[in-house]
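Pilot study result, target chain (447 residues):
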Amino acid sequence: MFLLKSIPKVDKFIAKKEFKTLGSALVMSLTKELLSELRENILNGRVTTFSEDELVKELLQRYTELTKPSLQTLINATGIIVHTNLGRSLIDADAFDRVKELMTNYNNLEFNLESGKRGERYSLISKSVCSLLGCEDVLIVNNNASAVFLILNTFARKKEVVVSRGELVEIGGSFRVPDVMKQSGAKLVEVGTTNKTHLYDYEDAIGKKTSMLMKVHKSNYSIEGFSSDVEFGEIVKLACEKGLIDYYDMGSGHLFDLPYGLDEPSVLDFMKLNPSLLSFSGDKLLGSVQAGIIVGKKKYIDMLKKNQLLRMLRVDKLTLALLEESFKAILLGNKEQIPTARMLFRSTDELREDAMQVQQKLKKNIKTNIVDTKTLIGGGTTPNKTIPSVALVIESKNIKVKKLQKLFRQKSIIGRIEDDEFLLDFRTIQKTQLQQVVDAIDEITDV
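Predicted structure:
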């Protein structure tokens, strides 16, 4: 009974000097919760003693945990450039600064400055995209999955879409092409086999209810050996002959030539085929923000804009502004302004210089080894294709590999384990982060 009487009053407890600079409403809520738990624990015999200082400390800890940002800055030392779990592509700091002024002021998002009347948000980015790709029009939605759904719902609801069996993919988050087609109202018509599909398979499947011939990028896997698929150009030609829509879900189309002999679908090349529709992601090889970019013939884009679902799938001013920065950088031949491209095109000599710089700054008793390695681009791009990289192996007799990985993770550095060694891959470590890496290695291995 004495302990229960010792529980402080809420109004007196929240008036303590330690809480003066904190949000009063949140302090009040946490206090009620904390004191209620204390009362219950006393009655259950789990608490036999406490002090107000301990309660203050506990509340401050809960307040900090609740108010600290959920998203935290990390150093990506995995070598995977488009790392889905780590936020995919980085945004260039200078581009973000240019967009900042737009975001902190009113702007012409849906206002036509020439006519003084309401404008269309999608037209803001169309000039740079159409100039770069040579397309008739463009539409931006919140991601490529949305693009796929909107296109199928608009043109193939209660109609048939012909797709190769070898392209009925499942990507991250259990996103399955057949399920998306079903949800959109389209009827899937599978053709060919898992490893081989021919043009005549598409032609034989065309019927009265056929609306679209669709091709899907395989994203995170590839079929090797006795296999073949149909080139998109052949699908475009067949669709045109039969009066159908051709559509390529490219997943991650690129807009500049890739290094290291990588073979990935090029949006620029496919636009020369005069396709009905293409869609691809903004935050993969384009190296921009999350978005689904739909390009193609204006008559089809206009029909997409009339679909009521677009209201739910559209993007905001920040996405449009940052996406335009990326397209302009490529249009002007300044791909080095895009962090994804910068990391992708860095030579192993440059990476080795960074690794040596870190190694030379370390305490002399720390054992490390610079090694040549290979890494993936990630994000469902260039499936099963690797690029060369350089890594620093952290050697420790006292700390096991998985423990090392955890210790670095606690320092906000995400590395990888390879051949039972923990390494930091410099393909994705930024130059501004090198000293932080040095400090972390010194602290973790100083045992």
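One observation from the pilot: The first helix runs from residue 2 to 6. A full batch analysis is planned for the follow-on phase.
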